Amino acid sequence: MATSLMAFKSSIGRRALEPPAPVPIAHKPSRSCLNLRRTRSSRITCDYSCFEVRDVTYRPPGTQISLLSAVNFSLPEKSFGLIFGRSGSGKTTLLQLLAGLSKPTSGSIYIQRYGNDGNPNQSPEFLPPERVGIVFQFPERYFVADNVLEEVTFGWPRQRGDLQFKEHLALRLQRAINWVGLNGISLDKDPHTLSGGYKRRLALAIQLVQTPDLLILDEPLAGLDWKARADVVKLLKFLKKELTVLVVSHDLKELATLVDRSWRMEMGGVLREEPLPI
Ligand SMILES: Nc1ncnc2c1ncn2[C@@H]1O[C@H](COP(=O)(O)OP(=O)(O)OP(=O)(O)O)[C@@H](O)[C@H]1O
């Protein structure tokens, strides 16, 4: 792939391109979101929020083909959701809508805050694309920089900011590097010379510096050896404590211990909540 195209593909995973879809006017409380909170903690002690997808359909512009058919689901904050299903069923298409890379043809994607009683306690909010980080399948194919530091900070503002702003960026960088366990690696290292597992850590760090609320990963274990796969699973277990994670994967057994909620995507873009078939 030409370098310029690689840079473009990489950059679309790093920043928002399109304005968010309108927030629904009439909103029904999501009981399923509350139920999941109850199973994760016997006593609900504070407000919480859920990422919610309501009646989302998608038809690529200029076509008559519906790739997603009235998709509905909720994912509470700091939980781990997994979508599985046959190749070509529409999983990646759904992730792209959540990341704001395409707009739903109809339906809405938003964040809803709930009170202790399980009822919404404020109006639904847009899910702005800058609050979503997406790691594509084989993210290392889209690395563009000559060293780790430039790869992580690609797309950051280059103009002279004040000291406070620079300190803020430096803290974000340090936190992301620590979270993914890249602190033992020189920031001067060429990203292409890293091992498979470290390349995935770097791809995660690129998203985490943006401090997303929702982290989306498309086949995070694909193409890795057994040790790197185990490392990535361990890392996702840690990240789940810090933010909400939504994964598309065929590697159900390896991810099973992390999963709070799972859905099968059926051909034609029909999503159904279903336990993992393992
Ligand atoms: N812009 C488009 N126009 C027409 N069809 C499309 C477009 N984008 C994707 N498709 C088709 O939509 C279907 C769903 O694709 P998608 O990549 O979302 O599936 P998937 O479930 O993620 O598959 P995989 O597991 O192989 O990644 C496929 O048949 C694909 O060819």
From TrEMBL:
Record domain ABC transporter: where: 51-278
Domain of life: Eukaryota
SMART domains per UniProt: AAA
Keywords for this protein: ATP-binding, Nucleotide-binding, Transport
GO cellular component, one term: chloroplast envelope
Transmembrane segments: none
UniProt GO MF annotations: ATP binding; ATP hydrolysis activity; ATPase-coupled transmembrane transporter activity
Pfam (any one): ABC_tran
Name of the featured protein: ABC transporter domain-containing protein
Taxonomic path: Eukaryota, Viridiplantae, Streptophyta, Embryophyta, Tracheophyta
